[in-house]
């Protein structure tokens, strides 16, 4: 096991040899059109069953609702009016403003030429493949493992359905399957094997990566809102994209998951957002619970030493 917190290279921590560059996703919500092609491609390739009767939810133009054992990619629809758009841009200005004095005549107009009256925020959510993955840390059977690409994968045939991984994920991604099916990855076209209760989530199409292919969702996305590649290159591309949007006055743009000093050490799936993370159902400051283990062990050791010292003093005092 590697370190439990802070900046890290998950491939090196997993001791793979030879080492491959860490792979990941960059999901650019500014060009997502909400077509759900990624959802369909993911379900098709991984043999995941449909969610319900394909009826729209009462709260959104959506039928899947959230990520789960059957839905490894989920496109959220968020409706915003003019006031919400202005609030998003103001919060973005606060993120990029350094509070430095400006030179006379150097004032920049950061307002877009045409203020939007209405917009949909559409975001294709997926497993974050965290640098420090709580689901992996708490798995007692080794069903969850770190691949040579730095991603986190569940092995259906090893999972015992204990469910420890479910509360360990700070993003609420992983879930146990309840419909009794788990598609074998080595038998395309075969009927799903009955195995109830196993944990399921995005594998970043590990089986496709082994064959030199890109994940099904990225392959299918018509606008290239979902990009796949080397993690470091995607983070750099995301930052460049944010800078271009800021130059156009789109100050609401921000990158999520690229901070290696956050509570999960940064994520393999990085997102370009147009509002606060909470608007998309993402935690603003995700933190993996296992990051606290070193401090907990230290405090436990100090407490145990104190109890032993107290017992020794009491014993010697009676002597």
From TrEMBL:
<feature type="domain" description="4Fe-4S ferredoxin-type">
    <location>
        <begin position="150"/>
        <end position="179"/>
    </location>
</feature>
<feature type="binding site">
    <location>
        <position position="202"/>
    </location>
    <ligand>
        <name>[4Fe-4S] cluster 2</name>
    </ligand>
</feature>
<dbReference type="GO" id="GO:0015944">
    <property type="term" value="P:formate oxidation"/>
</dbReference>
<feature type="domain" description="4Fe-4S ferredoxin-type">
    <location>
        <begin position="118"/>
        <end position="149"/>
    </location>
</feature>
<dbReference type="InterPro" id="IPR017896">
    <property type="entry name" value="4Fe4S_Fe-S-bd"/>
</dbReference>
<feature type="binding site">
    <location>
        <position position="38"/>
    </location>
    <ligand>
        <name>[4Fe-4S] cluster 1</name>
    </ligand>
</feature>
<keyword id="KW-0479">Metal-binding</keyword>
<feature type="binding site">
    <location>
        <position position="130"/>
    </location>
    <ligand>
        <name>[4Fe-4S] cluster 3</name>
    </ligand>
</feature>
<feature type="binding site">
    <location>
        <position position="217"/>
    </location>
    <ligand>
        <name>[4Fe-4S] cluster 2</name>
    </ligand>
</feature>
<dbReference type="GO" id="GO:0030313">
    <property type="term" value="C:cell envelope"/>
</dbReference>
<feature type="binding site">
    <location>
        <position position="159"/>
    </location>
    <ligand>
        <name>[4Fe-4S] cluster 4</name>
    </ligand>
</feature>
<dbReference type="GO" id="GO:0045333">
    <property type="term" value="P:cellular respiration"/>
</dbReference>
<feature type="binding site">
    <location>
        <position position="135"/>
    </location>
    <ligand>
        <name>[4Fe-4S] cluster 3</name>
    </ligand>
</feature>
<feature type="binding site">
    <location>
        <position position="127"/>
    </location>
    <ligand>
        <name>[4Fe-4S] cluster 3</name>
    </ligand>
</feature>
<dbReference type="InterPro" id="IPR051555">
    <property type="entry name" value="FDH_Electron_Transfer_Unit"/>
</dbReference>
<dbReference type="Pfam" id="PF13247">
    <property type="entry name" value="Fer4_11"/>
</dbReference>
<dbReference type="InterPro" id="IPR017900">
    <property type="entry name" value="4Fe4S_Fe_S_CS"/>
</dbReference>
<feature type="region of interest" description="Disordered">
    <location>
        <begin position="1"/>
        <end position="20"/>
    </location>
</feature>
<dbReference type="Pfam" id="PF12800">
    <property type="entry name" value="Fer4_4"/>
</dbReference>
<keyword id="KW-0004">4Fe-4S</keyword>
<keyword id="KW-0411">Iron-sulfur</keyword>
<feature type="binding site">
    <location>
        <position position="221"/>
    </location>
    <ligand>
        <name>[4Fe-4S] cluster 1</name>
    </ligand>
</feature>
<feature type="domain" description="4Fe-4S ferredoxin-type">
    <location>
        <begin position="23"/>
        <end position="53"/>
    </location>
</feature>
<feature type="binding site">
    <location>
        <position position="42"/>
    </location>
    <ligand>
        <name>[4Fe-4S] cluster 2</name>
    </ligand>
</feature>
<dbReference type="InterPro" id="IPR014603">
    <property type="entry name" value="Formate_DH_Fe-S_su"/>
</dbReference>
<keyword id="KW-0408">Iron</keyword>
<feature type="binding site">
    <location>
        <position position="205"/>
    </location>
    <ligand>
        <name>[4Fe-4S] cluster 2</name>
    </ligand>
</feature>
<feature type="binding site">
    <location>
        <position position="32"/>
    </location>
    <ligand>
        <name>[4Fe-4S] cluster 1</name>
    </ligand>
</feature>
<feature type="binding site">
    <location>
        <position position="139"/>
    </location>
    <ligand>
        <name>[4Fe-4S] cluster 4</name>
    </ligand>
</feature>
<keyword id="KW-0677">Repeat</keyword>
<feature type="binding site">
    <location>
        <position position="169"/>
    </location>
    <ligand>
        <name>[4Fe-4S] cluster 3</name>
    </ligand>
</feature>
<dbReference type="GO" id="GO:0051539">
    <property type="term" value="F:4 iron, 4 sulfur cluster binding"/>
</dbReference>
<protein>
    <submittedName>
        <fullName>Ferredoxin</fullName>
    </submittedName>
</protein>
<feature type="binding site">
    <location>
        <position position="35"/>
    </location>
    <ligand>
        <name>[4Fe-4S] cluster 1</name>
    </ligand>
</feature>
<dbReference type="GO" id="GO:0046872">
    <property type="term" value="F:metal ion binding"/>
</dbReference>
<feature type="binding site">
    <location>
        <position position="165"/>
    </location>
    <ligand>
        <name>[4Fe-4S] cluster 4</name>
    </ligand>
</feature>
<feature type="binding site">
    <location>
        <position position="162"/>
    </location>
    <ligand>
        <name>[4Fe-4S] cluster 4</name>
    </ligand>
</feature>
């Amino acid at each position: 096991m590697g370190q439990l917190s802070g900046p890290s290279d998950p491939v090196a921590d997993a001791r793979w040899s030879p080492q491959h560059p860490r792979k990941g996703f960059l999901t650019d919500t500014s060009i997502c059109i909400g077509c759900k092609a990624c959802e369909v491609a993911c379900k098709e390739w991984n043999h995941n069953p449909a969610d319900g009767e394909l009826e729209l939810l009462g709260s959104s133009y959506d039928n899947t609702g959230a990520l789960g054992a059957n839905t490894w990619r989920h496109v959220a629809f968020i409706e915003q009016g003019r006031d919400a758009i202005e609030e998003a841009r103001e919060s973005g200005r606060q993120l990029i403003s350094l509070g430095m004095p400006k030179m006379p005549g150097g004032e920049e107009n950061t307002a877009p030429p045409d203020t939007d009256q209405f917009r949909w925020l559409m975001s294709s959510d997926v497993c974050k493949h965290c640098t420090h993955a709580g689901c992996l840390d708490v798995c007692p059977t080794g069903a969850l493992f770190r691949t040579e690409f730095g991603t986190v994968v569940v092995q259906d045939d090893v999972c015992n359905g204990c469910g420890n991984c479910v509360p360990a994920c700070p993003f609420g991604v992983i879930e146990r399957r309840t419909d009794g099916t788990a598609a074998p990855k080595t038998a395309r076209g075969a009927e799903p094997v009955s195995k109830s209760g196993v944990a399921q989530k995005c594998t970043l199409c590990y089986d496709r990566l082994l064959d030199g292919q890109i994940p099904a969702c990225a392959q299918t996305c018509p606008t290239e809102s979902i990009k796949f590649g080397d993690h470091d290159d995607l983070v750099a591309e995301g930052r460049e994209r944010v800078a271009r949007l800021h130059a156009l006055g789109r100050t609401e743009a921000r990158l999520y998951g690229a901070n290696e000093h956050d509570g999960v050490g940064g994520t393999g799936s990085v997102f370009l957002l147009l509002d606060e993370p909470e608007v998309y159902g993402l935690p603003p400051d995700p933190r993996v619970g296992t990051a606290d283990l070193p401090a907990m062990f230290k405090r436990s050791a100090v407490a145990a030493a104190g109890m032993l010292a107290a017992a020794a003093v009491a014993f010697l005092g009676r002597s």
